[in-house]
From TrEMBL:
This is Crp/Fnr family transcriptional regulator. InterPro entries: cNMP-bd_dom, cNMP-bd_dom_sf, Env_Response_Regulators, HTH_CRP, RmlC-like_jellyroll, Tscrpt_reg_HTH_Crp-type_CS, WH-like_DNA-bd_sf, WH_DNA-bd_sf. The lineage of its organism: Bacteria, Pseudomonadati, Pseudomonadota, Betaproteobacteria, Burkholderiales. Residues 147-217 form the HTH crp-type domain. One of its GO terms (molecular function) is DNA-binding transcription factor activity. One of its GO terms (cellular component) is cytosol. Residues 13-133 form the Cyclic nucleotide-binding domain. Keywords: DNA-binding, Transcription, Transcription regulation. It comes from the Bacteria. It comes from Pseudaquabacterium pictum. It holds the Pfam family cNMP_binding.
Length: 221
């Protein structure tokens, strides 16, 4: 059975720590398993906790007063959430819901506050993560302001893909409803765009639900 130290060593956030520093973190974290559909954090509430994904998958969501959801991001192994609320002591700005069964390491506020000044590499990693999320938010705002639905779908497909043996591939099944929540459009409109991309040979949906991008989808300047 893997120890907390073994698990810590698998998390990129802690990759720069020395053995003693990693052990100090390992002594402070608790492992927890979340069920599919279970909320990790809820928009508008505080948890005072850093959550680090060991496996599984979770969605970062926000919703309006009528309950309409927008998917802001999808978290996978190595990702983490909750650091902003730990830093500014404000309520969470979004909800995180597990898409499948997910194991996480949990670090409380007191241990988090103690670790940051003691481990400069951890502080720097957290800062880089915040900058990365800010840049992602900037791109989303730009897409909503400047791109039509076609452009937003094309950009999102590219951002979701990864290079597998030289081929841009989205490993997880992409539902039309989820894509609509990401790009801020209706499911019907997204379905039409995806169908057009498939008919033009830009993308190809595999039997297992993954999507292969066969040529680079054009993005407006």
């Amino acid at each position: 059975m893997l120890t907390n130290l073994d698990l810590i060593r698998r998390v990129p956030l802690f990759s720069m720590l020395t053995n003693d520093q990693a052990q100090a973190i390992a002594d402070s974290v608790v492992k927890r398993r979340f069920r599919r559909g279970e909320l990790v954090v809820e928009q508008g509430r505080k948890s005072n906790t850093l959550f680090i994904l060991l496996n599984g998958r979770a969605r970062v969501l926000t919703s309006d007063s009528r309950g309409r959801e927008v998917i802001l991001a999808v978290l996978e192994s190595g990702d983490y959430v909750g650091e902003m609320s730990l830093i500014d002591n404000e309520a969470h700005s979004a909800t995180v819901r597990c898409e499948i069964q997910t194991d996480m390491l949990i670090l409380g506020r007191a241990d988090f506050a103690r670790c940051l000044p003691e481990h400069s590499s951890l502080s720097y990693a957290i800062l880089r993560g915040l900058v990365r999320r800010l840049r992602h938010a900037d791109r989303q705002i730009e897409s909503l302001a400047l791109l039509d639905v076609y452009g937003r779908v094309a950009r999102t497909l590219l951002e979701m893909s990864e290079d597998i043996n030289g081929v841009k591939t989205i490993r997880n099944k992409v539902s039309r409803q989820d894509m609509a929540k990401v790009v801020g459009a209706s499911r019907e409109m997204v379905s039409r765009v995806m169908k057009d991309l498939e008919e033009r040979g830009v993308i190809e949906t595999q039997e297992n639900g993954s999507v292969v991008i066969k040529e680079r989808a054009a993005q407006p300047e």
